[in-house]
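PROTOCOL LOG
Step 1. Enter all chains and additional molecules of the complex.
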Amino acid sequence: MGRDDVLEYLIEARETLENIEKELLHFEKSTLDGSQVDRELLDTLFRHFHTIKGSSGFFGLTGIVKMAHAAENLLDYLRNHPEAQDEDTLECLITALDHLNELVEHEESSPSGGDFFNELQIQFLEKLNEKNNEIRIKETKPKENSEHNQKEAEFGLFINSNTENSAKEEFGLFIESPKTPVSEDFGLFTGDSTPSKNEEFGLFIKTDKPITKETVPKAEENLKTEKKSIIKKDIRIDTDKLDSLLDIVGEIVITEPMVTDHPDIAKLKLENFQKTALQLKKLIRNLQEITLSLRMIPIAGIFSRMERLVRDTAKKTGKQVNLVISGEDTEIDKSILEEMYDPLVHILRNAIDHGLETPEERKESGKQPQGTIQLTATQSGKEVWIEVRDDGKGLSREKILNKAISLGLLGRSDAESLEDKDVWEFLFHPGFSTAKEVTDLSGRGVGLDVVRKNVTTLKGFVDVFSIYGQGTTFLIRVPLTLAIIEGLVVRKSDTYFILPSIDVKESIYLGDVPINELYKNNHSIQYRKNQISIVDINLLFGKDSDLNKLRSLKEKYLIVTESHEKIMGIVFDEILGSQSIVIKPISPIFKNINGLAGCTILGNGHAGLILDVRKLINQHLSSVTI
Amino acid sequence: MNQNLKSWDMSADEDTMKDLYLCFSLEDRDYAFEVRHLTEILALPAITTIPGTAPFLKGVINIRGKIIPVMDVRLRFDMSFKPYHERTCVLLVELDGLPLGLIVDSVNDVLRIPSENIDLAPKIGESKSSRFIYATGRVGNSVKILINLQRLLTEEETVLIKDIPGN
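Step 2. Run joint prediction.
Step 3. Record the structure below.
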C-alpha cells in the first residue's frame, strides 16, 4: 500500500472527523438542558467512529484504531443506556476527537505508522477505557464483565462490539444463527452494517429466518448504492490541475477577442463569420463560468469549524453563547475560503471575549443571560458578505478615542468631530487593543490590523458597525473569485488601464461640461447634485497632471468611480469597452505600488494595468482637502 | 524515478553550459553574463509603463501570456537614455525564480570563457555601477566585463524606489 493511498485515506478520515465534531457539538447542544441524547445521533456518531476505526485498521494506523475503538465502545454503551450519559462522557468524546485529529495530522506530516506519539495520548486512552468501565459499573454490571471489556478494549477489536451486540435483545436473531456470513467474512463491516440494518429493518426481526436472509443482502446493497451516488457527486481533483485548467481558460478568454476582432478582418463584411464568432463567444463564456465554478465550494466547511471554536472560547471565558449560523450554502472560491479562516477565528474570539458580557452583566442590563452571535454568509453580486453580529455591549467610543489619543493617532480637539465609523477605524490600527489585560485569547495587540491585512490581500474589505449597549457587527466582503473580474478598459495616452466594473458608476463624455479649477491639480465638476473631485491618473502616480490645460479636456472621458460611498472622477482619453479580465500579479520587483491591483493582457496583446480604485480614492482624498 | 531523471538532466545541462557567457554591448563596451540565467532573446515588444517606479524599470511586457517586468540596463548603469531601435533586444533572464527582461543595445555572441581567463574585478572605488561588475574575462585581445545579475536588484534600490514621490 503506497503512501499516496494513506494520504488519500487521511483526507477522508479528516472529513469523517469533521462530521464527528459537528455531531458532537449537536450532541452537546441537545443535552444542555439535561435531556437525554437522541438515539439516532448516538447511532450516527457510533457509525462515524466505527468507520474511522475500520478503515484505519486497514491502513495499519494502530493509534487511531485504539482511540476510535475506545470512543466507539463508550458510544455503544450509551446507545442502549442513554441515561448513563453525562457531561464528563461528552468531554471524553470531544477529547478523543481532538486526539484523533492530532493523530491524523501527525500521520500526514510525519508518517510513523499511525501509532501514538506522545504520553498524553496513551494516558487519555487509559482514561477513556476507565470511563468505559465506570459507566458500566454504574449500571450495576458484574465486575468480571467490565474487566473482560477492558481486556478486549485493547486487543479483540471486533469481537467486543459483536458480543455486546449479540447480547442485546434486538439482535437476538443472530444468536440463533451465529454463522451468518456477514459476521464471519466481513468482520470489518459488521459493526457498521448490523446496527444500521437493525435500525432500519427492525421490522423483520420477528419474522422468519428465510425472509431475513433475503433482506440482509438487500440492506447491504442499499448501503452500497448510497455510497456509489456519493462518489459520483464529488471527485477529488489535484488543485494544480484545476489551476492550469483555469489558466488555459483564462488564455482562451483573452485570445477570443484577439481572433474575432482581429484587425486584419476588421474592415471586412463577414456576416457568417460574425455569427459563428458570436456562438464561439457564448461558448467561451459558458466554459469560463463552469471552470470558475469548479473552484467554488460552500462556506459551510469553515462555518462548522467555528462552532467548535465558539464552544471552547465560551467555556474559557465563562460566557454563554448561542451561535446562529445561516447562509452556509453560499459558495466561494476555495483559495479565498482558506484565507478566511484566520480572520473569522479572530473576529469570533473578539466577539466573545470583548463583545459579549458575562451572564451576570447581561442580566443586569436586562438581556438574556445567553449571548447570541450570528454568523451569516450572503452572496451579493460578485461578492460574498460574511457578517459576525453579536448582541454584546458594543464598542465604547470614549475608550477607543482615549486609546487613540494616548497612541498619538489624533489630537484631543479632533476627537469630538469624528463620526462613529471613523472612530471604529482605529480598531484596525496596528497595536491597537482596548483590552485591559492580556488573556490567552486576545489583548496582545496582534489583532484586527492583521485581519484587515488578510482580507485586503484578497481584495476584500472589513467594516465594523456598533451601537453601544446593543452589540457589534463585523462585515467582511470578499470577491467570489480572485482570478477573473469584469472590467472597463480605458486608455490614457499609450497606457491601457482597467477599472473593475464594480467600482465604476458612470462614464461621461466631458465635451462641454464645465470644469471648475479650485486650485492647481484640484478640479471638480457638477455630478448630479454634488461637486465631485476629478483627477488625472498621472497625478495619482506622482506625475504632473495635464488637467491644467483645460482646453485639451474637451475630447476626453470622465469615469465616475465609487468606493465606500466616496466618489471621484478619473479622466481618460478613450473608453474601449467592458470585458472579462484575467488578473495577473505584478512582479514583486515593482515595490510599493499603491494604485494598482494587478496586470492583465488585453485583446491587442498589450499589458493593461488594473487600477485599485479604493486605494486611489483614499490616496487622493487624503492629499487633497476639499 | 522521475526526479532522478530530472536531476540527471540538470547536471548534463550544467556541464554543457559551463563557462558559457552571453555577450551584449552598451555604448562601446562589451558585457557578459552566464548563459544559464538566460531563457530567451526577444525583439523589443510594446512596453506598458508602470507609473511611479524607478526610471530604469521601464514597465511590463507580455510574453505569450506572461507579464514580465523589463529593466533598461543602460539606465541601470547610469548611462544616458538611448531611444530604442530595431536592434534593441530584450534578454529574458530568471533571477531567484523571478523572470526579468533586460533591455540592451545589441546582443553579440555566446562565448566560452574558461575560468582561468577570468580575473576578479579590481576594486576601483565603490562607484554605483561598479557594484554590478564582479570580474573581467579575457577573450583573445578583448576584455568582457562580467556582470552579477543578482546585483541588478538590490536592497539599495528598494530604498530608492520607496523614495519616489507618489508611493
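Step 4. Note key features.
Chain A touches chain B through 30 residues (CB under 8 Å).
The first strand of chain A starts at residue 296 and ends at 298.
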